[in-house]
Design brief:
Blueprint lengths: L4 H13 L5 H8 L4 E6 L9 E3 L2 E7 L5 E3 L5 E8 L3
Parallel strand pairs: 1-5
Antiparallel strand pairs: 2-3, 3-4, 3-5
Length: 85
């Protein structure tokens, strides 16, 4: 499974251009088969996959229970963790 490089690049560019948490709705519409979650950065203990614009991006994967994963080839979605500021 996993998320390919072109999709990762598009998601990164979309998040980088975002000026508000409303970017989540845009991403859900653009990529409806992916899991999308949003929270505050302080709610996620794991190191982000990338920090882009207003958000830390965490990859999510797992068969039964979702979990943060380190590798895009294991990912089925994202957590957008909004940083304070």
């Amino acid at each position: 499974m996993g998320i390919d490089e072109a999709v990762l690049s598009d998601i990164e560019a979309t998040v980088a251009a975002a000026q508000s948490p409303a970017v989540l709705a845009e991403l859900r519409q653009k990529y409806p088969r992916m899991a999308w979650l949003r929270c505050d950065a302080s709610d996620v203990a794991e190191t982000p996959w990338k920090t882009v614009g207003l958000f830390d991006l965490h990859l999510v994967g797992g068969d039964h229970c979702p979990q943060v994963v380190p590798d895009p080839t294991q990912a089925t979605g994202f957590i957008l963790a909004r940083r304070a500021g």
